[in-house]
Amino acid sequence: MKKEKDYVGDIAAIRSMMERTSKFLSLSGWAGIMAGIYALMGAYVAYVYFAFNPDEVTHVPGDEGIVLLKLIALAVVVLVLAIGTAIFLSYKKADKRGERIWNTTSRRLLINMSVPLVAGGLLIFVLISKGLIGLVAPFTLVFYGLALYNAGNFTYAEVRMLGLIEIVLGLVGLCFIGYGLLCWAIGFGILHIIYGIYIHYRYER
Fold first, then answer.
1. Confidence band of 51 (pLDDT split at 50, 70, 90)
2. What does each C-alpha distance from 204 to 50, 114, 200 come to in angstroms?
3. Cα–Cα distance between 201 and 198 in angstroms, integer?
4. Contact at 8 Å (CB) between 81 and 120?
5. Quick one: pLDDT at residue 145?
6. pLDDT tens-digit series, residues 21-30
7. How far apart are the first and last CA of the chain?
8. Phi, psi of 98 (to 5 degrees)
9. What is the pLDDT of residue 4?
């Protein structure tokens, strides 16, 4: 009986070691929570202060040029805050676990995420240049979801599920343009907070 327990313990240890080398497990739940908060704040500012909530594909209220510049600046601020927080908290988590944040697995994770993110980013610029502003929020969800789905191979399995939900929300936003900003707030805001809380309580406590 004791030998069986030893074997089970050894198998668990080997599995844990293999998981550490094949998956990037330094993603912080708090990073997801903070990213969600930043996104909700950004959506609030865009809706209340910039009156941004397109109900048509090509509709932008007010002065298009000024509104677009403000929205781009707001998006950059939200993105920088989210990425900066994720890097900082992931670094702290990796350091606490005695691991390096930049390794073969994290590089593979970044490469697999970057392909849909770069493609989506270029598409967003094309949409903006063509004045198709109502499609921007839904397409950011779709391509972000694709990036998360790819990332699920190299980190927590829950990331893949989050990616699928983001894709579905993006498609809903494309079908109902008037709800695009709401879908964006749910996808980048509420879902990130729920995901972050789940990851924190399941893996970090």
1. confident
2. 38, 26, 5
3. 5
4. no
5. 97
6. 446 567 789 9
7. 31
8. 75, 30
9. 54
